[in-house]
UniProtKB/TrEMBL annotation:
Family label: Belongs to the ABC transporter superfamily.
Pfam families the UniProt entry points to: ABC_tran
Keywords: ATP-binding, Nucleotide-binding, Transport
Stated name of the protein: ABC transporter related protein
Keyword match Disulfide bond: no
GO MF annotation terms: ATP binding; ATP hydrolysis activity
Domain of life: Bacteria
Gene3D superfamilies, per the entry: P-loop containing nucleotide triphosphate hydrolases
Domain ABC transporter residue range list: 5-229
InterPro entries in the record: AAA+_ATPase, ABC_transporter-like_ATP-bd, ABC_transporter-like_CS, P-loop_NTPase
Length: 301
């Protein structure tokens, strides 16, 4: 079976700017994949290449086993990338019917997709009266008209209020459970943590890591509260290396396996450090992102 998305050394340059830098992404069938990174990391540029809207400078992208932008590919990939454009004076349903007719999709599918995005009750209302969240969901409905195998969504909750975000998350999770592969970009950690099976973390156009959310979070970490903290930090750096030690507020975060904690404790005590707490803890994506990129992500979502 073809992978929904596979890129090899995918690169896009704009003059001196390398917007996407030798990206190797793999999206597997049936998963909700989160493409996570701060503004300007190269997410939109990547998605545009996957849809054949712009050409790569070098490297390759395969989408459902084909080169992006071929006729066959376009009918099997749904996308919401630049804000959806609809006729404001037509109802949501009429807008979709116009699109369905143009795409050769039977009218019955319009009701199905309105149901899927929870707009069946408001289908008769004018598009101009919709909230931003409803407009976004109608955009997803339009992308679903052709029953795509892969749905690509660029920042699907951008600009939505908390309720709109929650509705969109429910919708995306539902699509994922129904077997549609979803690739979405986001700069919102909370969102990705809640919706996605796997994430690709991107920074400055480069892929920093690609993993399941569960695996990323399960990587062992030990939190140490001790006095004096600066001495504890320097002992830990000597024992574990500078990279493995981070001072956070009034404690240390150490990248170390849990079975090493007795040894670590003994070494700290030997160095006259009073250890009041030493325990392994599950990190959230925010910590991981900061460790990997040195950048902060947004807390919203
Ligand atoms: N058409 C273009 N011409 C020149 N530079 C561009 C163009 N499109 C994107 N860039 C640059 O490429 C880099 C990546 O932009 P991109 O929009 O892909 O990032 P992003 O991760 O999607 O961020 P955002 O969420 O802010 O859109 C940025 O430095 C951006 O300024």
């Amino acid at each position: 079976m073809n992978l929904p998305v596979e890129t090899r050394k995918l690169t896009k340059k704009y003059g001196p700017i390398t917007a996407v830098d030798a990206l190797d992404l793999t999206v597997r069938p049936g998963e909700v994949y989160g493409f996570l990174g701060p503004n300007g990391a190269g997410k939109t540029t990547t998605l545009r290449m996957l849809l054949g809207l712009i050409k790569a400078s070098s490297g390759t992208a395969t989408v459902l086993g084909r080169k992006p932008g071929t006729a066959d590919h376009l009918s099997r990939v749904g996308a919401l990338i630049e804000g959806p454009s609809f006729y404001p004076y037509l109802s949501g349903r009429s807008n979709l019917r116009v699109m369905a007719k143009y795409a050769g999709v039977p009218d019955s599918r319009v009701s199905e997709v309105l149901e899927l995005v929870d707009l069946a009750q408001r289908g008769k209302d004018r598009y101009s009266t919709y909230s931003l969240g409803m407009k976004q969901r109608l955009g997803v409905a339009a992308a679903l008209l052709k029953e795509p195998q892969l749905l690509i969504l660029d920042e699907p909750t951008n600009g939505l209020d908390p309720q709109g975000m929650a509705d969109m998350r429910t919708l995306i999770r539902g699509l994922g459970s129904a077997g549609c592969t979803v690739l979405l970009s986001s700069h919102l950690l909370g969102e990705v943590q809640q919706i996605c099976d796997r994430v690709g973390i991107v920074s400055g156009g480069r892929l920093i890591t690609e993993s399941t959310v569960a695996d990323l979070r399960a990587a062992q970490h030990v939190r140490v509260t001790a006095t004096p903290l600066d001495k504890a930090a320097s002992v830990a750096r000597e024992l574990l290396g500078v990279e493995a030690v981070r001072v956070v507020d009034n404690h240390l975060e150490l990248a170390v396996e849990a079975d090493q904690t007795p040894w670590l404790n003994a070494e700290l005590v030997k160095a006259d450090v009073a250890v009041s707490e030493l325990r392994s803890h599950e990190r959230d994506l925010e910590d991981i992102f900061f460790e990997l990129t040195g950048e902060e992500l947004s807390h919203v979502g």
